[in-house]
Amino acid sequence: MAIRTFAQLTFQLGNPGAPNTVYTSTHPADNNLTLQISTNTPTSFAAGAPVPLSSAPTAKGSLIYLNLSPLDLSAAEFAALAVSATDWAARSFPDTQTICLAPTQTIPLDIAPAAISVAIGNFAIANPPSSNPVSLTATYFHVDGLTYGGLGVPGAFGVLLQPPPDKDDLDLHDVLGFAVAETGVVCSIDGYAPVQNTLNLSFGPGNVTRAVTAGPNTAFEVSFVYADDAPGFGALTTPQHGTVFTFGRGGLMKAKKGGGLSPEPNAAADAWSISAGKNLQSPS
Question: Which of 45, 111, 163, 277 is deepest in the core (most CB within 10 A)?
């Protein structure tokens, strides 16, 4: 059975690299919001001028009303918004926290990925709503082939509220590389002297080159999979044998005043010197 799709506009509000996302910050520079307007059928917007929502049914020209009231912006935060788009006029209505958009000339719009971009600058939000994500609505009037008479058509869309990203918030999996030099271990056999294995875990630079700062409490935890009996499913040894493991510091690991994680300049190959200042400890 075919699924019938109604001709309509769709809306998306978000930041570069973070679609459908609004950052909760009191610093306007943390947000670079853009409202993207798309359609699933070719249409056009007729030139007009922004008017109050109550006048929209009888107004001349296409109109879009973006309702931001679910974001719980303060009066000052809403008043500070700077809305702009090429060949579009914008007017804010503080009593309803709604922004009216109207084209200043006839504007055609083809199906997605074609889109109209509306910049919403100077956005700050000190007290975001507790609900997350938030559902917003954009209601449009007099859009060719998409509306009927003076009736408005609402388009609902969601936005996720989250703190702005930290430019220094990187994943250690990308910054650090870990490797075990040995490709296997020798198993001991009952009735024979146990065979001791030495495994060397090395730290090296990862795919992202970045200095990583460690503190007095910085630690890397190495764990193993244990099993009491065969087949073990990837276990390295039994819990009993795991109690006799000993650990030693390798030649490239050294305590360094101030702590940190940096390339070891005297290493024959790329390696890292790992330290955490005077509080660095290594079990032995």
Answer: 45
pLDDT tens digits for range 9-35 = 999 999 999 999 999 999 999 999 999
Whether residue 108 sits in one domain with residue 58: yes
**Mean of the pLDDT values across residues 55-69?**
97
Parent domain of 68: 9-162
116 domain-assigned: yes
Residue 176: HSE in the Cβ half-sphere, 13 Å Cα cutoff:
17
Burial class (CB in 10 A: 0-12, 13-18, 19+), 182: exposed
Identify the sign of the CA torsion 114, 119, 120, 122: positive
**Measuring CA to CA, which residue among 218, 227, 228, 237 is closest to residue 280?**
218
User: How much is the pTM?
Assistant: 0.62
Helix (H, G, I), strand (E, B) or coil at 179: strand
Residue 234 has φ and ψ, to the nearest 5°, of: 90, 0
CATH number at residue 17: 2.60.40
Give the pLDDT confidence of 124-179 residue by residue, as tens digits.
999 999 999 999 999 999 999 999 999 999 999 999 999 998 766 666 777 777 77
Structural tokens at position 30? 């943390």
Do residue 43 and residue 125 come from a single domain? Answer: yes
C-alpha–C-alpha distance, residues 41 and 8, integer Å: 7
